Amino acid sequence: MELSTDTDVHDTYLSHWGKSLDGLLRQLEPHDVEQIRTVTDSRQIRSLLADPVRTGVVLPSLEHFEQFVDCFISSFDPRTNSFAIWGMIHLTLKLASDATDGVTQIADMMRRLGLRLELFNACTKGPGGSSKQMKEAYLEVYIDLATFFTACIRFFRHDTAMISPGWNENHSGRWSPLLKVYNASLTSINDRFEHVSVLTRLLKENTMVNDFQGQQSLLSLSPANFTEVAKLPCVMLPAGRGSRYYNRDGITSKIDSFFYPASGERAFRSIALHGIGGVGKSHVALKYAHLKTSNQSIDVVLWFHSETDPSLAQSFTDAALALGLPGIGRDRHLENRIILHSWLQQTTCTWLLVFDNAENQDLLLEYWPKACARGSVLITTRNNTMQFHPADAGIEVPSFDPGAGSNLLFHLLRMDVIDDLSGDEERSALKLSQQLDGHALALSFIAGLIQKRSWSIQEFLSVYEKNKRGVHGPRQPNALSTIWKLSFESMNKGSAAILGILSFIHPDEVPEEIFTKASPDSLPPLLEHCTDEMDFFDLADPLLELSLAKRDKDAKAFSTHRLVQTQFRYHLATQGHRQEAFDQATKLLFDGFGLYQDQLYEKWSRCQVYIQQILSLKNNYKKETDELEPLKPTLKFCWLLRNSARYLLETADYVELEDVLSVAKSAFDKLTNAEREEGSLVLAGIQNITGLQRVHRGSFDRGLMHMRECNRIQSEQKVIDLIGLSWSEVNISNILASACEFDEALQWLLKGERTRKSARDDDDGKGVQSADFVIQQNIARVNVFLGRFDQAQVQLQAAIDGFEKLRDWGMLAYTVFIVGLLERKKNNYAAAREAFQEVESGWLAGGGQKTHHFYGACLYKLGCVANDLGETDVAIEHLENALVVTKMKENVMPGDYARVLHKLAEILKKKPGREVEAAEKSIEALRIRMGRKPSIESSASASSDGNSWSIISEREDEDEGQHDDSDEKPYDEMVYILWR
User: Fold this and answer.
1) Of 72, 384, 462, 770, which sits 20 to 30 A from 903 (CA to CA)?
2) What is the C-alpha separation between 473 and 278, in angstroms, rounded?
């Protein structure tokens, strides 16, 4: 008995689709089938929607249909035809325009179908999109849509097989025959969505586990090698949040009962604590964590700041360092995450993780424990959907009732131990709690004000009542806004200046050194003495007394509640000082981060101190620009974003980088004409990094456009920065080389070399000298691809000697990588392998990460050379490791991922028993490659009988003719030249 393979199932699905499509088309008149045949894609439908009325009602739905068809094609085969559905929609809209209310009715049905498709599309993105179950779901939904639009055509043609006798096109119920088919299609799609939503979740979790196993293998973290080396016990909790906890015992008991059921079962469990901002979710999590550590019932408690990717990454690094796990580096966030996840999976100790302020589900899943049999996780969030996924359960943290709220106030004022409280104090506390709806954070501010002023509760209530009239805040009840006003107005100007800066930067773990180690010129006049720690704490203490900020004395860092940040920015706006605080935060971060023209590899540690603060400033700028009186960007703000973008480029954080560049460009465009003229070089810098970001991700045309604009701006300066100009010339060359325009690339390199020789050596010579070696390296690379091997050999040796002298391990690795390319092109496979092995060892010895895309490229080349030498098993091992690295960046660097998939598939075809796996990888690689070829379009072809329809398009690569898929070249050409 032969077992069916995935390929057999794939062919079965295609056969089923073809037969279903043929059956539907046979229900139509031949002339309608011919019209459907002429429409090959959705662009012809958009042309039909030329008038504004049709466009407005149909176009939003059409976009969901387009996305669905793209996913459908990708799920099966990049060459799959999609003409039928577009032809059917086109003809339906055309016929509907001739019927009374036709366009309106069809548009409404398409809108409802489109909404279902939108959910379906979102659900099927990512892992599992090409699984058998997903293919079946795509296929059935596609057939449902085709059935509906076939019915539409028959309805408008008054098909008697569909319309019963006595039907009247002018009757109010004339749409009922079509509505019957529509409702059936809609119900079927809904059923598919419910099934797929569960399936997607399971597939995604399974894929993440499989990916994690590959990452463990890459870093040699297999369970067989595990030994317990962590420093135990380990408790990493936020400091400065007092150890006096009030109430919430009912919630902590529920948490403990869930994590430790009476049955004694010990399994991995998770709970989401959800509720509105400021009710005390983090307080509950912290109380529970302290309970478990105080009775020594748990070995490890780790607290993660979870609002953004950079904050989570830093928290994971801090946790891994606290545990003392081997292989941890302060700059290696991705590797540190894998190492910590591996330890959580394999350790036998008891542990609790707290993901505090988690709002983004997809981001949280990236950091979620992988395949753990034990352990506990708490999430604090305002997003109540977290209780369904990824958490196993949820507990709402409500505001206090009036009585509990008044008791909280007594607790904070340490009056809960007084037996003879006056009735006036008790009534005043109860009234305050009632008016504030038991809001925990607001009550803590009241306690701070009362203690600072030495008021009684009754005296505070009197002040509060006088001030609450006419006080309003952003999306806050009047009562809460009054508390904010009283707290903020009780500060001195220096304290307010510090809080103004804190309100724009990261809410958690802000290093004191940003203030205390700043140049006095970087600080506003009120804070110019903050470099003296005593003066700084004189100004910071009121923030601590009023509970407006917390301080971790061990980490020497400040934290501010997100509500405090939002409300103080609003307060500043009402006082006319919000712009001033934003400008002060910008200047402080700009001066601290620094302005760098060259690479930052040696300065990453310094950059990490500031990067989270800069990203938070950027995010808060975006929020505040949506207000009625938006912030005005400054030239210094644009420079700050441009400078930080360089660091994000080097660390390959392309998602955050794209947003930073977008905000930087938008901010620059809002400057005055005079500011834009003065700061034209910042625009050149933005264009430069935007261009590099594009080409790193394989978009060479767009990257070249940005880089040419950068070069144009630089060359038109009154005083030209020749070093900067030469860098853009080198970058243009690299982009041209990536597009295989090697002769023109060489001319730009020689131009850059001439520019460099004209530059004066204004520093110690190291920067210019290093840049000269970079040019030699790049000229050598182009000569390798042009086949000028002797010239390349001389230039490579000069560059290697230079980088060795400068001890520039990063550039040395890139140079020796070219040596490997040269030797392989000369068929010297043993020498090529030796070169790539030298790159691998040098990269790691210098501090490079195994998860970096350049390391992935090195593994890829080692796999290729091993295959050249006939060492199939060695080649597979290298390529599987390369696949692990490139898959981590699959969404932002698809070309790198596709070429490893393709090469691995070609080699796996030779291994008995792995043919199906090879076919799947080959199809996935082809899907990515075809998706980057806008010139490749679908074409319908009819079989000899004129009735059956071809399922697979006949495609032709216009540039290469009928290419050989076994060739590396088409896939190499998707990768940036520096690691091609």
Assistant:
1) 72
2) 15
